[in-house]
User: Fold this.
Amino acid sequence: MPLDIDKLQARRPQNEIYYFQTLGSTMVEATRFATCGAPHGTIVLADEQTEGIGRLGRSWQSQPEVGIYCSILLRLPLSPANLPVASLLLGLATVEAIQKSTQLACDLRWPNDVLIDELKVAGILTHLVETYIVAGIGINVNQSVLPGGFRTPATSLRIQSNGRVQSREEIVVSLLESLDFFCSMLATEGTSSILRIFNSASSYAINRRVIVEESGTRGITAGLDENGFLLLHSDAGEIERVATGGIRPDYQLRA
Ligand code: BTN
Assistant:
């Protein structure tokens, strides 16, 4: 079934909601709205994407009517130096929305992969457009099977809840509510609260053996710096600041 946009708009009158049955990517459409002056909280949703964009030049599988594919315009009080905090905030909001609407416990892998049992259930892409952030969020909701061959194997909320079909509308409403919550926390308390909450919500933030995808550096995670970058105690004995890319678990024992 297509998304019930009337229901969504009735529950979230404060957001401008634009719905498309099929799009190449919601990122492209949302960027167009952003450059035309659309306000904070504008959300572009599609029931299917034919050219879904993932992080690091990857693609995002966007089969019709089973996932959430959306891009949201955010206007946040962030200096360019701590823009990475926006990625963390989006991860926190996505996790809270999933947990509230499905009762499934999620983990976060820096910067913002959402995992259940180490399988990827949601991914987030952030693009800076002029003074806006265009936040692309993809959530695997009602897929019964997912294509294989990814570096991080994927799952869906339905698979993780023993076949229970989940309401995409409910999750989108929760997502917008959670975003409101974390955006006002950022506005009133600054970045430190977001960093503290991320450190405790993510099993990857501290004391986890990982490999940095870009450099191949291996080491143990040591929390976040004040801008939201990940710190790593490398096996070479240095403290490395991971600013871009991602990490994955390192199951190899240290030599
Ligand atoms: C990742 O690689 O983990 C990020 C995936 C982001 C996918 C979402 S789906 C909605 C929005 N539109 C896109 O084309 N990509 C993002």
Observations:
- Residues 168-189 form the longest helix (22 residues).
- Helices lie at 5-11, 26-35, 84-102, 157-160, 168-189, 191-201.
